[in-house]
Amino acid sequence: MTRAFTNTIPQQATSAVSTFSRKALNGSGILLVATVWGSAALFGLYILAFYAAALYEGNMERWNQVLPGLYERGTGTATTGIGLHFATGGIILILGSIQLIKAVRVRFPALHRWIGRLYVLSALLAAIGGLIFIALKGTIGGPVMSLGFGLYGILMFVSAIETYRHAVAGRLENHRRWALRLYALAIGSWLYRMDYGFWLLLTDGLGHTRTFSGPFDHVMDFFFYIPNLLVAEAFIRARQYRASSALRLGASLLLVLATGFLLVGTYYFTIYYWGPAILGWLTRT
Fold first, then answer.
1. What is the rounded end-to-end Cα distance, in angstroms, of the chain?
2. How far apart are CA 154 and CA 146, in angstroms?
3. Which of 14, 135, 222, 274 is the most buried (most CB within 10 A)?
4. Cα–Cα–Cα angle for 199, 156, 211, nearest 5°?
5. Per-residue b/e over 142-155, b at no fewer than 16 CB within 10 Å?
6. How far is it, in rounded angstroms, from Cα 28 to Cα 72?
7. What is the per-residue burial (b if ≥16 Cβ within 10 Å, else e) of 182-211?
8. Are 256 and 31 in contact (CB under 8 A)?
């Protein structure tokens, strides 16, 4: 009887750790999703307010304030491609954030499906628009930047196709996995600005050049989306039933750290960049 009693202690402890790890993963996931939702939605509005509004007003030279050489007269096809990329990019950030809300998926499945169709179409157009621009004009950072951004566009295109394909086939678990990967890619443009903002603030632009061809620039050509995919994969695998408690706790810590980073970045970017642009757009209209 003593042996049976002592054997139940490790089992109870293991069960408690397993339960805690599941709750920690679920809670950290909800916290990150809420942070991403709010921040990405703000950035999506900023994209529409700055880039789409400049296109609508016929003042595309304003694009060059953020990225020199982005707009040049006489490059109509390339300008159309990058304009399509920006406009649909703002849309997918807003719609993708809505798709993450479980209540919408459960209570309004028809709305979820229609938003999903528009979301996937916008992601495809954003990818195609960016790839057209790269193919016709290249990027300011040269071959490395073109390679990194081109790979990003291809991955977004594939993820959008797979998200839709699995949804239509009724393979919901695979659909959710690809939808998460697609959103991880969709927020790449948002994180690209945020990463640069922190780097310029903390290091005064170490490794960055005006032509975006410095060592830090080359790292950023891939860094703005590859870590996102790694976090998404960690979350996907940690949610599996047989995932160990250690894996779930490790994923939870990673999600909490990512949340803290995003909260700080969102606060400063909203005050100094996104907020003024959005308010200016709203007051003009």
1. 78
2. 12
3. 274
4. 35
5. eebbbbbbbebbeb
6. 44
7. bbbbbbbbbbbbbbbeebeeeeeeeebeee
8. yes
Question: Are 278 and 45 in contact, with CB atoms under 8 Å apart?
Answer: yes
**DSSP codes joined into one string, 42-99:** HHHHHHIIIIIHHHHTT-GGGGGGTSTTS--TT-HHHHHHHHHHHHHHHHHHHHHHHH
Closest CA to 230 of 238, 221, 218: 238
pTM of the predicted structure, to 2 decimals: 0.74
Residue 120, amino acid: V
Helix (H, G, I), strand (E, B) or coil at 138: coil
One pLDDT digit (tens) per residue for the chain, 285 residues: 555 545 555 555 567 777 777 788 778 877 877 887 788 778 777 877 777 666 666 666 666 666 666 666 656 566 667 667 766 777 787 787 777 777 778 888 888 889 889 999 989 998 998 898 888 888 888 999 999 999 999 999 999 999 999 999 989 889 989 998 998 898 888 788 878 878 887 888 899 998 889 999 999 999 999 988 988 887 777 666 566 777 778 878 877 887 888 888 888 888 877 788 778 777 765
Q: Which two tokens stand for residue 60?
A: 């595309």
Asked if 21 and 245 count as a contact pair (C-beta separation under 8 A), the reply is yes
CA dihedral 223, 228, 233, 239 (to 10 degrees): 150
